[in-house]
Amino acid sequence: MKVGIIGATGYGGLELIRLLHNHPEIERLDLFTSSDEGSVFSNKYTHLLNIHDEPLLKIEHDRLTDYDVLFTSTPSGVSTELLPPLIGKGPKLIDLSGDFRLKDAVEYEQWYKKTPAPAEAIEKSEYGLTEWNENAIVQAPLIANPGCYPTAVLLSLLPLIKENLIDATQLVIDAKSGISGAGNKPNQMTNYSETNENTAIYKLHQHQHIPEIEQAIQTFANQTSPITFTTHLVPMTRGILATSYAPVNEGVTEKQLTNVLQEAYANHPFVRIIKDTNKFGTNQVYGSNFCDIHVKVDLRTNRATIVSVIDNLVKGAAGQAIQNMNVQFNLDQTTGLKHVPLFI
Amino acid sequence: MKVGIIGATGYGGLELIRLLHNHPEIERLDLFTSSDEGSVFSNKYTHLLNIHDEPLLKIEHDRLTDYDVLFTSTPSGVSTELLPPLIGKGPKLIDLSGDFRLKDAVEYEQWYKKTPAPAEAIEKSEYGLTEWNENAIVQAPLIANPGCYPTAVLLSLLPLIKENLIDATQLVIDAKSGISGAGNKPNQMTNYSETNENTAIYKLHQHQHIPEIEQAIQTFANQTSPITFTTHLVPMTRGILATSYAPVNEGVTEKQLTNVLQEAYANHPFVRIIKDTNKFGTNQVYGSNFCDIHVKVDLRTNRATIVSVIDNLVKGAAGQAIQNMNVQFNLDQTTGLKHVPLFI
Amino acid sequence: MKVGIIGATGYGGLELIRLLHNHPEIERLDLFTSSDEGSVFSNKYTHLLNIHDEPLLKIEHDRLTDYDVLFTSTPSGVSTELLPPLIGKGPKLIDLSGDFRLKDAVEYEQWYKKTPAPAEAIEKSEYGLTEWNENAIVQAPLIANPGCYPTAVLLSLLPLIKENLIDATQLVIDAKSGISGAGNKPNQMTNYSETNENTAIYKLHQHQHIPEIEQAIQTFANQTSPITFTTHLVPMTRGILATSYAPVNEGVTEKQLTNVLQEAYANHPFVRIIKDTNKFGTNQVYGSNFCDIHVKVDLRTNRATIVSVIDNLVKGAAGQAIQNMNVQFNLDQTTGLKHVPLFI
Amino acid sequence: MKVGIIGATGYGGLELIRLLHNHPEIERLDLFTSSDEGSVFSNKYTHLLNIHDEPLLKIEHDRLTDYDVLFTSTPSGVSTELLPPLIGKGPKLIDLSGDFRLKDAVEYEQWYKKTPAPAEAIEKSEYGLTEWNENAIVQAPLIANPGCYPTAVLLSLLPLIKENLIDATQLVIDAKSGISGAGNKPNQMTNYSETNENTAIYKLHQHQHIPEIEQAIQTFANQTSPITFTTHLVPMTRGILATSYAPVNEGVTEKQLTNVLQEAYANHPFVRIIKDTNKFGTNQVYGSNFCDIHVKVDLRTNRATIVSVIDNLVKGAAGQAIQNMNVQFNLDQTTGLKHVPLFI
Asked: Is D148 marked active-site?
């Protein structure tokens, strides 16, 4: 397979390079740039010396159609213009930005403050939450790869909402993320000295992943109600831990919740249900494509606490994108993604 | 004033030393130990060289009665036995452990798995949440200094619950803490390599601060209902950020919530209400006795998100203990506690 | 005393604010800006709410002469132009930038790549390494406050070189710094995700503190030879640890080295000599104005290892600047600087 | 191949598991324990769920001889007794502890304070610095896998000393390590709150890796002189950066140093020479088996600064051990070790 990455210098792009270089079915991997054409990538990113020493290529329509797969890992608004002309022209398109995730153009404009992608392109795209949309993904010319927060949240909640075990109308989701989610562009928020030794809440009630989560709950679990969703930055590079709270429905037990989760993912190797645990954290999945889930019911309040962890750059971005590529090319989903978590 | 600290080597004890050494009314500060009698404290804790070079003293009843104030910063169960005989014998007693916080002995046993303190001692003690209990504190021979999590949570919620602005029956509290809250005794959970680059949930639904928070809500805001409260460890040393969620009651606006908080703490210099903010975190209060609070209503869900931050070792432990001492001795509450947050 | 800070939003400036707000002799503290005139400082830096709520003032020559002391904490090249017209016009000037540190204009240009300050201004300025230049500091209208690295290095080495105990011609100095030394302006080097979990060497053999250290060795210890000095970034916010290596001269013992250091600083409360220690680090001095020093001779190689630690923002910047102000106004050097190290 | 790991719960052991589970030639991987026989490993280390769910096996001589390779990752003194009876009994033995590294038993006792291994066993063992000892490794029944610090130091210095380009009699080596090098046993030194935001020097002039480095310089570069070597802990989990200083010999240029390093490792895929770089750090190699080296001559002092970085758990432990296994079984050295560095 011939694969191209557009937006290689972002953290999503760098992670795609890391994972694709060990993917056994990739015979050629090219990096595209809008600005640094011709420069040797490993001169700047010296950790890739002897791994990727090829020069960056210019983004040109004719050249791009020559690939089997194109990944775009670009800031909001870039894919909107770049990808529509490439639909159906040859390469499978897998977009890691948020440009094609929301079906409702008005909602996109409202949350992203950008011009939405053309309606026909949106229609042809499919949401790439692999475990929940495999049949659609296999056909689609364009995959809207899910956001990092939605991936962690949806995988843990969809089975419980779909089976009507928890009250989705009273859902509260408190998410904590490492800093790499903010991208590689330096700004005050990600400046080391103001981020280290600091746990902070940001974009309160305004994160663009809110409509994405709500849309997916409607699509895959058929329930509609607004959610309370907050995002926090914690002083670490990788990892998301999402803690979700909802009343359990009448008569539902912790055992049932655990069982439904286990059944839902019995044939999905990247989702693991962790049962007895005193401390459950993001290092469980560090560097891997796993999403681990733990659930517990508080009998005093009759509320379930559902906790899920992912590596935001892997299952929350580049890993899931490759998992989707595997699905599209009828490869085993775990091809090139069998990384054991680093843990320490 | 002559002041003694029992349990000087714990992190609460070390922070008491840090703060008390610059307290203008302290003329003598002695450290007591159960094991290392006679050893010079600054030989082991060399950061205190030329600051506290006196030898550790043995814990002896007769010697202890000679102080104006005794702080105990000891593991659960120690104060239970040590303090009751000292009540009314001279020194004001300020206990930083959890031994005297719960009025209900059965509840104490259930959550702490230890023998409760004698009922008469419990009765004579007062809960040291300074801003809410000043009149009682000024008289009491024994102060049960609040836990770190309860301090952050209660200061932000009590005014809103008391004024009936939010629905306390549906309260969800998601708390994140730095690692110093786990104390100075090495264990697997606080071992650097398993804590760094890891955000984790622990003691799910079982943290002993749950009954403490519920009791204080009943005492100070007159509402009784169990809460959902979870605790997370984030990779930093100091700081707690508590994110609390509750539906706002009919007709209540964000402005009202903010106003009620501002009025509640208008005369309390350590509690600050932060209004417009994009990123709000624990570095706001690092090293200081402040508790900063931010509140926002999500109109989509009609739910308020209330966020509060403290330095767990200062307002969450040693700082509030000294604030209580100041109250008892009719000093300005900020005496010795005017530290500007480090921020970076 | 009336004090002004120019460059308040840099990390040096923020630390000056933190320390000066608790300085007992300051009756007025004003902040000056080149860009944000009129804006309320605590609106942006909310950790200063209720502490510094005054609006930023415009930098105007006539207004500036009205202060007793002016601190400049500005990027290289700003003081060069701003301060010369203010010399002798009233305020004592204490410059935290590198603009007045090097007496040799050619050297300044070579290392800083900027136009040097006027020669007369350089002549009137004195190097503010307090412990070594007190008599000059007390008179000088303009203090060139030392760099962070030079402070850590010089305090530990000057007594040993001056007494001819180590061979300064073979000096190797390996310095490690927290990230706050790089300032508050976001850039790739200080972006959290590339700095966290990364220890790196930078500016190899090219750091502008090299000529500053060499000049001070010549001035205060009368020896001239180039040094090998390297700088590393370690993933923490505050702190510098400098490890210096030099052969001990014939017959010199470890005990002598320790004694000479102890005698040199017997009357200098901010420099502490730490003797027996298994682990010696920057948390010793965190948040304080101390410089702690430890020395050990390796009998196998006849070489001394001299280790010193400071908080780069305190003794390495704002703290020493205030210490110099205290000297100039005949206050006790420790006035407003009695902070106990945080340690944890 | 059938592979066993003794000491699976240490950080070296966990890293062996991580790497071996993706090694294409391993058909069976068993974990041995001295204490927890029968317990399921992934119950405690839940990050290994669905990866290694087999129960721990008891360490029994007869059972152990059944493997092709045995890795021991145990505290000092354990291999000393465990391995000698297994020599020549079937499995290749690869010891990650320091028990067989020093050829001189007196030296071992002096630095390790333990009884040395039997002389015949020491004789039969070979030092596993792969790039420098391949021929011996391929034959040896027992490999003494190098320490983490020696690996970083030796790979960068041996070519330069061997070719007589730098003056090895004046070598100063300043090494910085992440905390995982201290192992998984909780102690005060690795307790998060005292390690975070702290760069510290420890075991000054007394680290047991000193004689190991000196012995290897003698063996592979034929020079004998004691070195100055210091070790620092920096607040990160993984990574070692070693900064070495030595005068360059008469007429030697930076270009020569770089060329000699490049030639020395031209056929060694895990050692990379990084030329132009402004910032060079441990994140270059994070999670990978690379050792990256950068060298620069300071013309002002005629001294070379040689910098090398490794991931202490990979090239400094488990990765190099597997590289040695590959050599012994005539596999390509990179088999199972092609990880791209995580970088962020």
From this structure: yes
pLDDT tens-place values along chain D, 344 residues long? 999 999 998 999 999 999 999 999 999 999 998 888 899 999 999 999 999 999 999 999 999 999 999 999 999 999 999 999 999 999 999 999 999 999 999 999 999 999 999 999 999 999 999 999 999 999 999 999 999 999 999 999 999 999 999 999 999 999 999 999 988 888 888 899 999 999 999 999 999 999 999 999 999 999 999 999 999 999 999 999 999 999 999 999 999 999 999 999 999 999 999 998 999 999 999 999 999 999 999 999 999 999 999 999 999 999 999 999 999 999 999 999 999 999 99
Q: Name the pTM for this structure.
A: 0.98
* CATH number of the domain enclosing B187: 3.30.360.10
Distances from the Cα of B188 to the Cα of A204, B193, D76, D180, D282, angstroms = 34, 9, 21, 13, 26
> Are B177 and B127 in a shared domain?
no
Minimum distance, in Å, between the CA of residue A98 and any CA atom of chain D? 22
Whether D282 and chain A come into contact, CB under 8 Å, resolves to: no
Quick one: D86 and D161 in the same domain?
no
Nearest neighbour of D243 by CB, restricted to C201, C300, C343: C201
**Neighbour count for residue C175 (Cβ, 10 Å):** 23
Judge whether D208 and D150 are in contact, CB under 8 Å: no
Does residue B185 belong to any structural domain of this protein?
yes
Q: Does D27 touch chain B (CB under 8 A)?
A: no
Please indicate, yes or no, if residue C8 is contained in any of the structural domains: yes
- C267-284 pLDDT, tens digit each: 999 999 999 898 999 999
Rounded-to-integer distance, Cα A324 and Cα A131, Å: 10
Same domain for C324 and C305? no
Is the domain of D131 the same as that of D244? no
Based on the fold, state whether residues A94 and A193 are members of the same structural domain.
Answer: no
Torsion angle, CA of D249/D252/D254/D259, rounded to 10 degrees?
-110
- Whether D338 maps to a domain, the answer reads no
In our burial notation (b when 16+ CB lie closer than 10 A, e otherwise), range D11-43 reads bbbbbbbbbbbbbeebeebbbbbeeeeeeebbe
DSSP conformational letter for A126: E
The Cα–Cα gap between D112 and D101 comes to 11
Surface-to-core class of residue D184, CB atoms within 10 Å of its CB (0-12 exposed, 13-18 middle, 19+ buried):
middle
Length of chain C: 344
Cα separation, B204 vs D35, in Å, equals: 29
Residues of A in contact with B282 (CB under 8 A): 197-200
Catalytic residue positions of C?
A: 148
How far apart are alpha carbons A305 and B205 in whole angstroms? 9
Domain count, chain B: 2
CA dist., res. C5 & res. D43, Å (int): 58
The nearest CA of chain C is from the CA of B120 a distance in Å of: 37
Would you tell me how many other CB atoms lie within 10 Å of the CB of residue C267? 9
* Statement to judge: residues B173 and B283 lie in one domain: yes
Pair B154, B301 in one domain? yes
Q: Subunits that touch chain C (at least 3 Cβ pairs < 8 angstroms)? A: A, B, D
Residue A121, domain CATH: 3.40.50.720
Task: Chain C: give the shortest CA distance to residue A189, in Å.
Answer: 9
Cβ atoms of C232 and C174 closer than 8 Å: yes
Whether residue D344 is contained in a domain is answered as: no
Longest dimension (CA), chain C: 64
Which residues of B are known catalytic residues? Answer: 148
Region at A221 (left for phi over 0; alpha for psi -120 to 50; beta for the rest): alpha
Per-residue DSSP letter, D40: B
Contact B187 D184 (CB under 8 A): no
Is A160 in the same domain as A118? Answer: no
Tens-place pLDDT, residues B148-157: 999 999 999 9
Q: Which two tokens stand for residue D76?
A: 């000092």
Domain containing C18 equals: 2-145+315-328
Structure tokens at B141: 């021979």
